[in-house]
């Protein structure tokens, strides 16, 4: 085969490695793919943590939504206002036109 030629690679001064070209290309590819693989694993780990947290929150919310409801207390009997009770205060504010009268006497 034509690609199986010997290649001399200088690792450090004084250290030389003789290898075949396809082995050198494969080793370069594998070494170059390590940072991408690490980034992929870190991203998957982060997303799995976020998904687990969301699933835990969803389970808590479902548990709150499915809890039994306490019955409402019976209504108190209607009380008849006594004649000595003070008149209720009018909490309705005046109309804006009543605040500033334009007609002067």
From TrEMBL:
Pfam family, one: LapA_dom
Residue stretches of biased makeup (Pro residues): 70-96
UniProt entry keywords in alphabetical sequence: Cell membrane, Membrane, Transmembrane, Transmembrane helix
Disordered: region residues: 62-105
Domain Lipopolysaccharide assembly protein A: 6-62
Transmembrane feature ranges: 21-40
Cellular component, GO annotation: plasma membrane
Cross-referenced InterPro entries: LapA_dom
Annotated protein name in UniProt: DUF1049 domain-containing protein
Native source organism of the sequence: Sphingopyxis macrogoltabida (Sphingomonas macrogoltabidus)
């Amino acid at each position: 085969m034509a690609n199986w030629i010997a290649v001399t690679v200088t690792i450090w001064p004084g250290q030389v490695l003789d290898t075949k070209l396809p082995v050198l290309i494969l080793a370069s590819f594998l070494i170059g793919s390590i940072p991408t693989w690490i980034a992929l694993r870190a991203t998957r780990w982060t997303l799995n943590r976020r998904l687990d947290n969301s699933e835990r929150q969803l389970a808590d919310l479902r548990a709150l939504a499915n809890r039994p409801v306490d019955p409402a207390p019976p209504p108190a009997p209607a009380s008849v206002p006594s004649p000595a009770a003070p008149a209720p205060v009018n909490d309705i504010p005046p109309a804006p036109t009543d605040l500033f009268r334009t007609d002067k006497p």
